[in-house]
Amino acid sequence: MNGAAAPEPTEAPAPSPQVPLDWRFSQVFGERGAGEDVQDVDIISAIEFNKSGHHLATGDRGGRVVLFERTDAKDHVSRKDAEKADYSISRHPEFRYKTEFQSHEPEFDYLKSLEIEEKINKIKWCQETNGASFLLSTNDKTIKFWKVQEKKVKKICEMNMNPSNAPANGSPAGSTMCGSSARTPNGGILKPGGLPLLRLPVV
């Protein structure tokens, strides 16, 4: 009322049309011959990245969970830092097969007279602890909690008993007496009238 002109309403700018996403193959896993039909149990039904984006889990209709890990992770910063940076990634991330396991089996619910298929409906990664990965997988009935961890497998490379030094007539070949006990060529100790004491295997 003081004579000031009221601002005229302006029209909001029209939203720009969204460009459709362009999906392309960057990496293919598995082998399938030309003309070979895809089996129903091999169709992926669930997929999930972990929080860092360095691991990928897929579940299929056959109840299997397959894990992949990123091979070029050391060339890039963490996903959180990459999201803050305003630049595009020059190349696609690369993954390699890590492991797989059978998560669910088909079962029958006798109370409801219903067949429960093994198809994985959802996968969820949990917090990593002590170098181990944890994830949840579920079908229509059961949720399962999995721990995935790399372990070193020890292999026995040497044993105490050597076939070439097998005892003949109750006495090991080439045994030497020292005091009240004897030593066998492969390092065992022979008690009087007994068998050699076994050493622990070397791994």
TrEMBL record:
Gene Ontology molecular functions: protein phosphatase regulator activity
Presence of keyword Repeat: yes
Stored InterPro entries: PP2A_PR55 (IPR000009), PP2A_PR55_CS (IPR018067), WD40/YVTN_repeat-like_dom_sf (IPR015943), WD40_repeat_dom_sf (IPR036322)
Signal sequence, renumbered to the chain: none
Stretches the record annotates as Disordered: 1-20
Domain of life (superkingdom): Eukaryota
Keywords: Repeat, WD repeat
GO CC annotation terms, alphabetical: protein phosphatase type 2A complex
Family: Belongs to the phosphatase 2A regulatory subunit B family.
Protein name from the UniProt record: Serine/threonine-protein phosphatase 2A 55 kDa regulatory subunit B
Organism name: Aegilops tauschii subsp. strangulata (Goatgrass)
